[in-house]
Q: What sequence folds into this?
């Protein structure tokens, strides 16, 4: 619910930007990945990675290497036990993968 409010507030304040939000969760940690989209480019992807055992922030505004490590852990766990890991995205899992790996997808990739 909070993510939806953030998206709506961002779009009202900056109508030319769209906030892209991905949420990854397993039993060890939560990953919230955000990026701003403008004219088909994802700008400044960031992530907050939370240890959901004790609630501490493992990384705040984590860079891509941290995000990729956690994402790979999640994918490995999902493959081994699909019911334990949930991926929610307002743009789809493929875009999440593109952002995390720094590759081009339907949109370009720009972290400048």
A:
């Amino acid at each position: 619910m909070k993510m939806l409010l953030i998206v709506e507030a961002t779009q009202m304040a900056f109508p030319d930007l769209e906030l892209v939000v991905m949420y990854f969760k397993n039993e060890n940690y939560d990953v919230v990945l955000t990026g701003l989209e403008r004219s088909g480019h994802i700008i400044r992807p960031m992530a907050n990675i939370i240890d959901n055992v004790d609630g501490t922030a493992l990384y705040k505004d984590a860079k891509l290497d941290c995000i990729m490590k956690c994402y790979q852990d999640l994918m490995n766990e999902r493959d081994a036990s699909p019911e334990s890991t949930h991926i929610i995205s307002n743009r789809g899992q493929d875009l999440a993968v593109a952002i995390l790996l720094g590759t081009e997808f339907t949109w370009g990739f720009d972290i400048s």
Q: What stands out?
A: The chain has three helices and six strands.
